[in-house]
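Hi, here's the filled form for the chain we discussed.

Project: internal
Contact: R.S.
Residues: 202
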Amino acid sequence: MKLRIPRPVGYFCLILAGLFITDGLYIKTKAMVAQQLLLRAWDKAVVLDEPVKPWPWADTWPVARLRVDRLGIDCIVLEGESGEVLAFGPGHLSRSAQPAVSGNCVLVGHRDTSFAFLKDLEKGDILTLQNLQQKTRRYEVVSTAVKKASNLFVEDTLTPWLTLVTCYPFDTMRARGEQRFVVFAREQQFDDLQLTAQSLQF
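And the returned structure, exactly as it came back:
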C-alpha cells in the first residue's frame, strides 16, 4: 500500500525547505557583500592609518587582513567578537594582543561562513596577518584542538602567536554548541613559546 501525503502537508514541507535554503543563502550572500565593503574600508584605513567604518552605522571597523594562500583565503578582520560583528566576518578578541604584534592575537569567526576554512587547515600551513600599519607577520599552524567552550582560555604570550577559534562540529545544525575548534599558529621565526602567568578568559 502506498503512503499518500496530503497535498497541504506536501506544500508546507516544500515551503519550509525553501525557507531554510533561502535563509542559508542569505547569510552567505550577506557575508560576501560585507567583505567587499570591508575591503574598501580597509584600503582607506591603510592610507589614513586610522580606523574607518565600513558603513555609517557600523559599530566595528577593520583591524587586520588575514590570508591563507594555499586555500585561497583573503578576508578582512573586524574589531570585536559580538554576534553583530561575526555576522560580517571574523572578529578580533579585544582582550587579546593586537594583530601582527607581539603576544597572542585571537580571532573568532562562524564555522559556516568566515571560518569555514578552518576545517581544511593542516599542520605547516602559513597564515599571513597584516595590520593597519601594514606590519605583516607570517604564522605557521602547529596544532589544532577541540575544546569545551566553558574551559576555553588563551595563554598570553610574549612572542607572536595567532589563535583562531570557531564553533564545532562544522556540519552540525545546532547553533552555539558546547565545543570549539581551535587552531594554534606560531610566528615562523620563533622556536620556543614563552608564556606569562596571565591567561585571557573568554
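Let me know if anything looks off before we file it.
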